[in-house]
Amino acid sequence: MADALIEVKNLSFRYAQHDSMTLDHLSLSVEKGSWTTIVGRNGSGKSTLIKLLTGLLENKSQDAISLFGRVLSEDTVDKIRLHIGLVLQNPDNQFVGPTVADDVAFGLENLDLSRGHMEQRVKEALENVGMLDFYDWEPARLSGGQKQRVALAGVLALHSDLIILDEATSMIDPIGRQSLLALVKQLQNRFGMTILSVTHDIEETFLADQILVMDHGGVALQGRPSQILIEDQALSGFGIELPLSRTVQRDLLALSIALPSGYLSEEELIDQLWQLYSKK
Amino acid sequence: MAIVFKEVNYSYQSKTPNAFQLLKNVSFRLADGSFTALLGQTGSGKTTLLKHINGLLKPSSGQVIVGDQIISSKTSEKDLADLRKNVGFLFQFPETQLFAPTVLQDVAFGPENFGQTKPSAEQIAKKTLEMLGFDMTLLNQSPINLSGGQQRLAALAGVLATEPQILLLDEPTAGLDPSTAKRVMILFKKLQQEKHLTILMATHDMDAAAEFADQILLMQQGKLVKQAAPKDMFQEKELVFQKILALPKVTTFAIRFAAKTGYTNQKLPISEKELISFLQRALSQDPSGKETTPHA
């Protein structure tokens, strides 16, 4: 793919103490400006893949990973990392500043911005995640979900070309999570950012352009949400929860209610039900 | 063991000018052997409330009564030792409670500390890990080397191995894949029903709250807004509208359907089975408003 921002070919990885391969000849490609979501059961290798992509784990399969058109290696990793905003599930591991604002500013220090410009970016990012009121708080006083919001702000402030979210919203309440994910979608659309997210929340995949289903260290399924979310049996086999709209559609079809059997998003399904409702 | 809060207030750094009130006049009673979901937005005080039940935090004013132990601002650490044996606490980020060189040692630590011999503590540890569906080939691995999901199971095993009478769970299924999450929730329900555990679970998973909890406590900005059974709580459209309460997926689906069609003739569903019969009834209803098939 000409416009691939992430290109992984035949990537394998085994932890020193483990008997089996965590990643086994994994290949994938993420198009520039797209949102790719990775799903898969615990231990399928999702987080290991993220750690290898971001240089948190050393990659021993040479030339297997390219980012921004450059092969990831010991020589290029520091430069490449400057373009990646990474948010992990446990933000405690990422907090460094004495206040929320310092923490968000930390990543910006490398970017040669003026003091005023930096402050503006910090405020804007905190505003975007709904945490501006906590500007001068100590991070230790925040709840788990608030910490995840601040960690996300730290990445948004960087205006990175690539944002990687590894279960980054798992501790945020459902209403807050939806608004943050909508914000990420907006950034993708407006600035052409590339998003790679790992999640157990099937609803997050609705926002993606591409879904990758991982299983046993490889990519088991890959495609657009409308192609993947209809693979009922395969998804169940990989431990993936089916979207509610899909199970409702199936249950209603079984009751001989006249619905199309192809993929319907929740909105499309409700539309269909509305038509049936008004026809009676 | 029953859990009672009587007008509990809690302020962070209460003796400094930075004081910030995290719990505001919270009162409730949870019966012995009940399963309660603690809901509320990020930062509403759920974790702070849980920490009061095993004395990790003490009320600035008011009382927390757990079994026959009263916890107030004056309670000393020494008085809390017995209580802590009976209260298991699974923290939000499990890696913060794993510390031993291997998973087995980590899980065996609790029972050994509470008086079991080493071999019998290890026996209990293995049994508990197995019950949770932990990958037993990882038994002698360092907890640090585990995937996030396996870490959570290991931390949970460490809590259950001490056989607590009260189980405090802070987002117990975050980071677990849906099938593992479901298995763990079913296990909690079984522990409640068979071993009579009292369970209080802070969660953002409304589907799990609707399916497994007997009752719900809803928090907002340090205050207890409402205590109710799931079937009643999730009818509170006003709380949903104010963004204080999120809904199970099935309930949201029904509300979206109702908004589109103008249909409002039924109680909102809180399980998928209820949603299907909700839709079925709505679709068989006469457009004039009369139902072709009557319902209760």
Question: How would you characterize the overall build of this protein?
Answer:
The complex is a heterodimer of chains A (280) and B (296). The N and C termini of chain A lie far apart (50 Å). In chain A, helix 3 runs parallel beside helix 5 and helix 4 crosses helix 5 (144-157). Chain A is of the alpha/beta class and 280 residues long. Chain A contains ten helices and ten strands. A six-stranded mixed β-sheet of chain A has the order 6-7-8-3-9-10, with helices on both faces. Chain B is 38% helix and 21% strand. In chain B, the strands form two sheets. Chain B has a six-stranded mixed β-sheet with strand order 6-7-8-3-9-10, with helices on both faces. Chain B is built from eleven helices and ten strands. Chains A and B meet through helix 5, helix 6, helix 9 and helix 10 of A and helix 5, helix 6, helix 10 and helix 11 of B.
